[in-house]
Amino acid sequence: MKKKIMIIGTGGTITAKFSKHCLKPGKLREQEVIGYISDARSIATIKTIELYKIDSSNMQPEYWIEIAQTIYDNYNDFNGFVILHGTDTMHYTASVLSFLLQNLDKPIVLTGSQVPADRIGSDAKVNLLDAIRVAAETTLNEVIIVFNRKIFRGNRTRKIREIEYDAYRSIGIPKLGTIEYDIRINKNHIINHKKKIKFYNNLEKNICIQKIVPGYNPKILSALVNLGYKGIIIEGFGAGNVPIETNSLIPAIKKIVNLGIPLVVSSQCSIGFSWMYLYECGNKALRAGAIPAYDMISETALTKLMWILGNYPDANLKKIKTIFLENIAGEITGVREHKKKSLWEY
User: Fold this and answer.
1) How far apart are the first and last CA of the chain?
2) What is the pTM of this model?
3) CATH code for the domain of 137
């Protein structure tokens, strides 16, 4: 018997057409996109639902909750889910879904394309067919991104190219698999859940990422607090370093932490991690109360903090830090020293 797969449409380039000399997502319906793939319905019984017709640059936290709610409401009726999504914020959506929907026992696959489905040479056909295959044929029971014949953990993925087909890269762990004639899975990184699915329907929206640059004004951090932000991610230099002399961030960090607001320091290096203990510039921020992201990427740190503050509103900073550094969905390891960084990274 064929597996039952639900395809959830949110728009993105895969549904786009040229309008007034530029691409406008949402012009193709999901049924039309599937129509370009003759083999799709031979793999699985497919049902489609359209939630949005947006460019993913317009994705919002409340949309993430609706996507998660849709999956949860239909969870027992399908063997897997495929979400059609724009590529610009796909990794944010994949990351947050890994926290909103925990203890999965079936795949939730996000995919899209860099070229609209109705254009010659589009990558839409391959990506969508691969996504349906992964959802129907594998036991990758987590939120994943399937793109350009590769399988990535959603909360470990970053978009690194704006229009090329090889758009994504896995950060911190190897890719989960490759799709050829067979689907080849990296079995060392499979997640096996033994608990019942758990759905969370709250997110704290007032979380932001700040990329530190030479000359960054520390008053910006205080202004963020005045604007009502409940959590801040700082992308520090290198291994999580921040200025400590001219324009020192240390007083601002202390002030924010004393207010009970979590402040996380990640690395702005594309494939770098936050080892704040290494240098004085990171160590002083650590001692001021900043939380190190370690091998968690900035985008995931953002969505995880949104989830924590949305669902544990009464948690103090100690509790928030404990949950933040806990491995929920494969987004962080227990590695706390740079010398133990995974060999494959080198």
Assistant:
1) 44
2) 0.95
3) 3.40.50.1170
